[in-house]
Amino acid sequence: MAYIPVDPNCQSIECALAESEQRFQQMAEMTGEWLWEQDPNGFYIYSSIAAKQILGFSEDELIGKHYTELLTPEDKNKQQFYSASHKPFYSLINRYRHKDGHQVLTESTGLPIFNLNGELIKWRGVDRDITARKTAEEQIHQAQIELAVAQREIKIAQQIQSTLLPRAPITNSQFEIAGLCLPADQVGGDYFDYFYRNQNCLDMVIADVSGHAIGPALFMVETRGIIRSQAHNSFTPAATLELLNAFLFDDLNRSDYFISLFHLQYNTLTKQLCYANAGHPPPILFNSKNKTCTRLDAEGMIIGVRNQMVFQEKCLGLASGDVILLYTDGITEIENAEGEFLGANRLENTLLENYQQSAQIIIEVLLNQAKQFNQYRPFRDDVTLLVFKCL
Known about the structure:
Blueprint: H1 8-30, E1 34-38, E2 44-47, H2 50-55, H3 59-62, H4 73-85, E3 89-97, E4 103-114, E5 120-129, H5 131-164, E6 170-171, E7 175-182, E8 190-198, E9 201-209, H6 214-229, H7 237-255, E10 259-267, E11 272-278, E12 284-287, E13 292-295, E14 313-317, E15 323-327, H8 329-332, H9 343-354, H10 359-373, E16 383-390
Antiparallel strand pairs: 1-2, 1-5, 3-4, 4-5, 6-7, 7-16, 8-9, 9-10, 10-11, 11-14, 12-13, 12-15, 15-16
């Protein structure tokens, strides 16, 4: 018997190739990638163990299967096109049916292997399971759609809410009145209003629904609607608050919201001001005669605490140059860097320094003061101001 000697160099090369192939397979298996080979007709001739984890099939179960047997119907025609082209494909998304029936998404790369005569002898490729990634991407995409819809709805709500506020300040020979409402979110629970109840009676309202965003904004709209709906009646401020509480109590009680509100009526003929309070911060009255400020207050609990409530009503006469500043706690509770509240006293001092200005200018000065005190950061709560000036 004759023995043919083997070149040691060849043995070294074969060992190196075998070791390299083994190293590659081990690395692929550690990353969870499925290595496979198919004959020219698309039947599996090799499968790594990762197929068991990805598709639920063992190597023995896959050998001899045609690759289209594993694909979902919608992917079969597409994949046959790539196979027939005999061209490499990269990052191709496959939809497989797992052994238990659920769908598995993979990202596939395949290379055709040719012999020296240019004939296709097999396909070699790798699949990476991207089911979790695609599911996450779809969830993100769906969330983005829902967010876009919600943002559009909020934008519409913001536009509607802004149209419910008075369109412009009023300036005539008898008085000036101006207001400002800045929601902390896109919509808010603060609200102010002024309107003529009759030819000689001006109603003024400022309110704060607890919290901010959509819920309080809806109650703000409801509050405005109730007050406006009885504008043709000769209701006093106290009677209006009693009616409002009766209408809103059940809704507020179920939702855990409440409303603070201050309502004033000004008679342009007699210059008499009547007012009632439902737990709202007392407005500041500047007296033009003695150049001092006092607080307007009347006994009354916030709307929504009890089913039946009685509100105290007070009246006083105004003189030319008197100014009334109404506000919500969103401005008085602004904190500076030292943790100090802006407070009503600072608003009062600013009013004393600017009482000669128009109602609109006084609001602008107060807003600038609040922004500066807050170090020009976004306000954490809705900020609303209303200024009435007797001429």
